[in-house]
Amino acid sequence: MKRNFCTISLLAIMIFSATAQNSSGLPPIWEASNVPPSKPQLPEDVSMVLIGPDTKNGIIYDVYVIGEDTQSYTARRWIIPFEINRYETSYRLWHEVRLWAESNGYVFNNPGQQGSNGRRGKDPTEAGKYQPVTNINWYDAIVWCNAYSEKNGRVPCYTFNGEVLRDSSNTALCDLAQCDWKANGYRLPTEAEWEYAARKTSSGYQRGDLTSGAVNGKGESDPQMADTLLAWYDGNTNSTRAVGTAGATGATSKTGAFSTAFSSNPVPGSGNGNALGIFDMSGNVLEYCWDWYDSYQELSPGTFSTGPALGAQRVSRGGSWSPYTGFLYCGDRYAYDPNESYNYMGFRFVTSR
User: Fold this and answer.
1) Taking the C-alpha atoms of 148, 152, 89 and 187 in order, what is their torsion angle to the nearest 10 degrees?
2) Model confidence, pTM
């Protein structure tokens, strides 16, 4: 009888102690497991990195020469801070946002596909979900950026006469798109931003006639670095590969298999990035930029470059896995009708701060 009384007393003390330490009145285990994270948990294929001048030390702009070492016409460009996704847009992310968008009034010309060999509009597979989205046109990309912005509570960048662009089949309006460069929504990079992200290093800028990331440990250009370590292109693959996996162990053979570590489902970021830790700036898929295509023009110091006001073709950059787009260098340019879509064309997104 005395032993039972002691047991009951000890149990009462334990309960009182737990309650006193837990002011919410909830069981401690439940409370600990339901504390929200301090920051939203991003998926593996979204990793935004802030790049640009060191404004904390009073630097307003980074200045470089666009087209250097590759183009007949070059010009200076002034860069202010912006965030860019380390990865090309994966089919997993594209598909998730497209379904949400279509249920919220958005219309797309093309449903997209999983990499170069996927089926249009189908659900992503577990093995291929990190393949880049392809077979979308420029119009689809800017409308998707608006949808991704709205889905995440951000202000869409692309409008016409104050109306958010939500229909990529309305190409006439999309051609007249106005971009709010101060909005916090997602958007395509300008051509100047894209080349900056491809060439910036710790010591300055790598040469424009090299694959993005061809630098040594000091951030200096290294022409001896093999393209197979940095890019998926027609020299080492017959198709797209998972974003952020170029140069992964055992992944440099055109016909050979991945090593065991990467054979089933390579993870974004398992390959080699460039000097800023950004992946696939050369190869895998060609990437859309905002600008209309034209020769570079010199601008007044400090001007934010957004390209010509009008044009017939939009700029794409970076080359791809396809022999049709084999120019991989940081300064190489492509121009396409914004209606065109192929299984070697995709995009990545940026956002103004």
Assistant:
1) 60
2) 0.85
